[in-house]
From TrEMBL:
SUPFAM superfamilies: MetI-like (SSF161098). It holds the Pfam family BPD_transp_1. GO terms for biological process: transmembrane transport. It is found in: Cell membrane. GO terms for cellular component: plasma membrane. It is a multi-pass membrane protein. This is ABC transporter permease.
């Protein structure tokens, strides 16, 4: 075995994803989803009403994540806050996935003027910073969970559209698609039965990555005060509420912030694994 071959194999082993990290990311994300689906199963307290005499208590056996200034249990608020953050992120990703894939399918299959017009619209979306675009849309639509989901979803449409268009154009040029047209298949049936299903795998991988990005965007909007209204628990809003106590009560901002970071990292790790499997 030559030295070059040994170096290549060693490099492949180093770059290969570790299964333990993937399993850990999947388990953590599954726990977050379980929090969002069945919050009452993991936290039995009231996330809105606290005990005034128990305000600003540090993490302990009685209060795992401590309490806030009004005596509300932070663990309970983090668990119930996952409902608003993760569900909103899921709706945003689904919105971007459906709309963006539809735009990419039309652009990649029709070509010509339709392709040029849709891609110029996509370029406009990419030219505007995502947070600024989200804020502008929320100001127009108003405040609320649905409005935040739509705003964040619109910012992800361009990424889905570009990737879907590239995949549609690649699949559109294959022999089996040409054979489907030659055998009398209509344009719509060929697009839906052959082109779209074979173009979705990279788009699904992007959806996992966009899920983490959506969580960050929703937390940022909540931190700025453009998400849900207090006292509703939401991760970004909880970080904003605790910033005035960061010098004396670190857990108010640190724990929700760590939860957000770990959730985003877990989603990104799963997205990387899906992408690596597609390239293999």
């Amino acid at each position: 075995m030559t030295e070059t071959t040994r170096v290549i194999r060693r490099t492949r082993r180093v770059g290969r994803p570790r299964p333990i990290l993937l399993v850990g990311a999947a388990a953590y994300l599954a726990l977050m989803i379980a929090w969002a689906v069945l919050p009452g199963l993991f936290a039995h307290g009231d996330p809105v009403i606290g005990v005034a005499t128990e305000g600003l208590q540090a993490p302990s056996a009685a209060h795992w994540f401590g309490t806030d200034a009004t005596g509300r249990d932070m663990y309970t608020r983090v668990v119930f806050g996952s409902v608003h953050t993760l569900v909103t992120a899921l709706i945003a990703v689904l919105f971007g996935l459906v709309v963006g894939t539809g735009v990419g399918l039309l652009a990649g299959s029709l070509r010509g003027f339709v392709d040029a017009a849709l891609m110029r619209l996509v370029d406009v979306l990419l030219a505007v910073p995502s947070l600024l675009l989200s804020l502008s849309i929320i100001i127009v639509l108003g405040f609320g969970t649905a409005q935040v989901a739509i705003a964040v979803g619109i910012t992800s449409v361009a990424a889905f559209a570009r990737l879907a268009r590239a995949e549609v154009m690649r699949v559109r040029a294959t022999d089996y698609v040409e054979a489907a047209f030659a055998s009398g298949g209509s344009f719509l049936s060929v697009m839906l039965r052959h082109v779209l299903p074979n173009s979705l795998t990279p788009v699904i991988a992007l959806a996992a990555l966009q899920f983490g990005t959506a969580i960050l965007s929703i937390a940022a909007l909540g931190f700025l005060g453009y998400g849900v209204e207090p006292p509703t628990p939401e991760w970004g809003l909880m970080i904003a509420e605790g910033r005035n106590y960061i010098a004396t009560s670190w857990w108010l901002t640190t724990i929700p912030g760590v939860i957000v970071v770990l959730t985003v990292l877990a989603a990104n790790r799963i997205s990387t694994a899906v992408s690596d499997r597609n390239r293999a």
